[in-house]
Amino acid sequence: xxxxxxxxxxxxxxxxxxxxFVVPVAVLAYLVRAExxxxxxxxxxxxxxxTDWTRAHPVAHDVLLVWQEVFNVxxxxxxxxxxxxxxxWRHHGLRTRALWAAGxxxxxxxxxxxxxxxxxxxxxxxEDAVAHAPxxxxxxxxxxxxxxxxxxxxxxxxPLLGPRARVVVPVVGGVLVLLTGLDRVxxxxxxxxxxxxxxxxxxxxxxxxxxxYHGWNHHLKxxxxxxxxxxxxx
Length: 234
Prior knowledge:
This protein has about 230 residues and is mainly alpha-helical. It has one domain. It contains eight helices and no strands. The radius of gyration is 19 Å and the shape is globular. It comes from Luteimicrobium xylanilyticum.
């Protein structure tokens, strides 16, 4: 099959995949900007309940603060980029895959900053606040970055994973994403809609970029399809 039509179809599939995630984020952003009564009520009710719980559990509060720092956007992005560099150095035949992953992780960092600037939502205002965070609220940078990074790294390593690891790795990644999102709401530094938008943005970016990347490089025998099973490399 000619390369050009195949690549064109891959890019169209990637655009369609990304659009499926962008649309709900755009709807949420519109509701936020329009200050929809339903959205405002749900967001504030959840924040009131979660911050009350955090105040009542000092040990959990301390753990949440530590989690916030460990999974800071900068540290997650840096860890992801270092992992990509190591992967490309260790597995020469998969260097294009490592470059794709690094670009996606860096892109997620830039994307969340851009959307924050565009929407310009203020952080939740909580009496007797349990934590403070700078910058705009929508979307959650933590949620965007951890989702994009875990999905991207899972896809990066997929050809090298055995059957058991192909179950464990996505589950562990999903747990990290959910706990990070929960951390943001329990600390009262993000509304739940911010977290949902961040997860959608991060997951959509990682998935769409992979669909486009894999279709574009499908002809490269040294960059295998992860659905074909683990690949052994020296």
